[in-house]
Amino acid sequence: MLLSRKRKIDHQAIKTVVISRDERLLQWMRKIAAEHDQVFIDFEYISNFDFGLELITTKKMDLVLFDLSSFEANKMDLMMKILDQAENVPVIVLAQINDEACALEAIEKGAQDYLTKELLDPNQVFRAIRCAVLRHDMIRELRVLSMTDELTGVQNRRGFHHLAEQQMKLAIRAKRGLVLIFADVDRMKWINDAYGHQAGDMALAEATEVLRKTFRGSDIIGRIGGDEFAVLAIEAHKENVPILMSRLKYTLEEHNRQKKHNYELSLSIGAAWYDPTVSHVSFEDMMARADEAMYAHKLAKMQSYI
């Protein structure tokens, strides 16, 4: 049961799910939560592992408290399932003294912290939760900075790969399609030579804007090279490719009608798709196929100029 407590206007309660088969622990957690309602932590108590796992994915939880010692078999397998599902949520492990080795292994795998059940006290629990959430937020901010392209504000190559791999896993699990589109800004060297590198940077920024106007906010856009972009369209299929290509072409034409520069922005594009109900391919395979299609388009355009 979720214990809803008062929230001050300038505080945001930390939504915490406790997964444990130890009824005494759950009773103790309920007791300290009721006695310390000023700490702004909302607890939800789950004794069934599968239900707890489902809750992590369906509700926007801020933290998971996982009682490792209350599960007798396959402890680390269960731990890995939680870490996989709660990739963007900090996890604190609760363990008995004789389970310290497992708790340390859980931290090596990605858990934020562990607490010894025999030594628990309310202030320690609340402090550990607050520190884990703050630490996780700081790590997430640093990760965002490290995965963002400074010039365009979209994902850099590292960030795009990271998010795309996540979406591949979700696509397999949900049996939904993905479309990967590569877009290369044509004549970048000429733009830099003729108008300067500031104009080249502007061309990259405008290409980014064209992509943002073309695709949905849920789709992933990345600058994966100097003048190369990639877009992963979520829940898209092979039959969507012509529609996406047509929409991109239209948006690019609309941009060029504004005649902002002495040149037209031009993109060479290629696409690959993934249908998990038909076959399983790696993300690297998808990238290779999209890259090949993009360069075929670029070559065809170059030959048309001859």
From TrEMBL:
Leading EC class: transferase
EC number: 2.7.7.65
GO biological process terms on file: cell adhesion involved in single-species biofilm formation; negative regulation of bacterial-type flagellum-dependent cell motility; phosphorelay signal transduction system
InterPro entries in the record: CheY-like_superfamily (IPR011006), Diguanylate_Cyclase (IPR050469), GGDEF_dom (IPR000160), Nucleotide_cyclase (IPR029787), Rev_trsase/Diguanyl_cyclase (IPR043128), Sig_transdc_resp-reg_receiver (IPR001789)
Keyword check for Membrane: no
PROSITE patterns reported for this sequence: GGDEF, RESPONSE_REGULATORY
Gene3D superfamilies recorded: 3.30.70.270, 3.40.50.2300
The protein's name: diguanylate cyclase
Organism: Candidatus Danuiimicrobium aquiferis
